[in-house]
Each structure stands twice: as structure tokens, then as C-alpha cells.
Amino acid sequence: MRKLYDLYFVSSNSHKYKEAKSILDSFGINLGFFKSNLEEIQSNSLKEIAEKKAKDAFSKCKKPMIH
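C-alpha cells predicted for DITP-XTP pyrophosphatase protein:
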């Protein structure tokens, strides 16, 4: 049976996922891991980089996610 998650962590880095999972576990948030390489644009704007990566991640995952 598939496990249901509240959110998915989209990344190619399992160490980042484990760190996020341990933090979110303390808040009762069940975090799953969706392994994916995301496009990283070059920009001076952290907001622009984050928005692009979030859109790229959602297009691959199609579930509530964080990166």
C-alpha cells in the first residue's frame, strides 16, 4: 500500500531531505521524498530562482511539495 504524505520534498539531495524531514516530523508533518534534478537558473534574485525551481518541481511531482 502506498504511503500518503502531507508534502513532498523535491530534490536530488537525500541529505537535504533527511534534514527537512527531521524538522517537519517535530511538527507532525509527514514528508515524502521525490527525487528529481531541477533546472537551476542564473539570477541575482533569490525569489526568481526559487519560483522557477518550485514551478519545475511541481510540473514533475504534481503534488503538494517543497524544495
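The beta strands are 7-11, 31-35, 65-66.
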